From TrEMBL:
Keyword Amino-acid biosynthesis applies: no
Biological role: Involved in formation of the rod shape of the cell. May also contribute to regulation of formation of penicillin-binding proteins.
Protein's recorded name: Rod shape-determining protein MreD
InterPro entries: Cell_shape_determining_MreD, MreD_proteobac
GO terms, biological process: regulation of cell shape
Gene field: mreD
Pfam families: MreD (PF04093)
Length: 162
């Protein structure tokens, strides 16, 4: 029993670390503006699937790690990610009962709010200008959610993650 619980945690953390690596992976400048929020997508899935194990604290830790990896102001993504995962954790029963296409719209909408929170915090600290291209990852998240949901659900079932 303990081996299964540890194995399940390992699978989840492996997917979250993979999401961190995908988030910092260099992309060509043509598609860099459309970089999906891999950490947000993976954590949103695990929060809906296992809200009692992966939620706000996990989001805050991953957000801090993302700030460190990106060389950004410490805590900005941690706070934004924790707020968005809080919303998902609050409504996870409703969200996971929606069809996948509605879930993808919800994820894309929350992604827009995630990027706006990051902008507002950076504006308050550094007085940065708003660039509408910062909302383009929501388009990628809308499309990627279908495949990410399918892949993570399959991993969860194959490895019996509970």
């Amino acid at each position: 029993m303990a081996l299964q619980a540890a194995n399940g945690r390992g699978i989840v953390w492996a997917t979250l670390i993979m999401a961190l690596l995908l988030q910092i992976m260099p992309l060509p400048s043509v598609v860099a503006d459309f970089r999906a929020d891999w950490v947000f997508i993976a954590l949103a899935y695990w929060t809906m699937a296992l809200p009692h194990r992966y939620s706000i604290l996990t989001a805050w830790i991953l957000g801090i790690m993302l700030d460190i990896l990106l060389g950004a102001t410490m805590g900005v993504r941690g706070l934004a990610l924790a707020l968005m995962i809080y919303v998902i954790a609050l409504h996870y029963k409703r969200i996971r009962n929606f069809p996948i296409w509605q879930q993808s719209i919800i994820i894309a909408s929350l992604s827009i709010v995630y990027h706006l929170i990051i902008f507002w915090i950076q504006f308050a600290i550094h007085r940065v200008a708003f660039d509408p291209a910062e909302l383009l990852p929501a388009v990628s998240n809308l499309v990627i959610w279908f495949w990410a949901y399918w892949l993570l659900k399959r991993l969860r079932r194959d490895f019996k993650v509970r």
